[in-house]
Amino acid sequence: MTSRFAAGSVAVVPLRDGVSGKSRLAAALDPGARRRLVVALARHVVDVLVADERLVGVVVVTADVPFVDAVLSGAAPGLTGSSSSDRQSGLPVRSRTADVIREPDGRPGLNGALDHARERARRLGADRMLVVHADLPLLTGDDVGAVLTADADVVVATDRHATGTNLLSVPLGGHDDGDGFSFRFGPGSRAAHEAEAAARGLTSAVVHRTGSAADLDTIDDWAGLPAALRARLL
């Protein structure tokens, strides 16, 4: 993606693959439905981000590049035709440009994938990195803007339980990853990210918004969505 600003934020979206995603929804959705859900959610989140002119670029980091390429082109494998799926979801047939990179083999896990994506963010001319999870069905540009404009070095948009991290804005720091902010995704990540900021002498702020808080991991999360939205996502 071509940078329109000398400096700013690059959004990074970690995305797994089309097979293992949303396994905790297995009691409510069969494998095909879960795959369609992963596709619809990822397209929605990426489209919100690429439409935001405050961002220098959007990077999707994944272990399954062919699947993500197909997702963003509107031709995800295993769907019953992209045009039919897109009509059902209400999403555009093709997401606009995002930079897709492969997770490094020797650094497994979400935090390692984000460390890898950090260098790509720097090469796009950014001085900040915005991590955005790909399972936020209510995310809007206003939610992204609330994180981008918060007056703190480190900004956490927490989940509905106020314990997790759904969006995270951090300074990129030096070119040695060891000198940068350490990602602390996992149980209790909100507190862990706030502690990481404090340990590095950085200010932090927490954003609470419906669109950034409503992630989709469990049966209760799925049941809590409006029925019309559930139907569009599948």
From TrEMBL:
Listed EC numbers: 2.7.7.68
Signal peptide annotation: none
Alphabetical list of SUPFAM superfamilies matching this protein: Nucleotide-diphospho-sugar transferases
Comp. bias regions, Basic and acidic residues: 96-106
Molecular function GO terms recorded: phospholactate guanylyltransferase activity
Keyword Metal-binding attributed: no
Keyword hit for DNA-binding: no
Main enzyme class: transferase
Keywords associated with the record: GTP-binding, Nucleotide-binding, Nucleotidyltransferase, Transferase
Name of the protein: 2-phospho-L-lactate guanylyltransferase
Biological classification of the source: Bacteria, Bacillati, Actinomycetota, Actinomycetes, Micrococcales
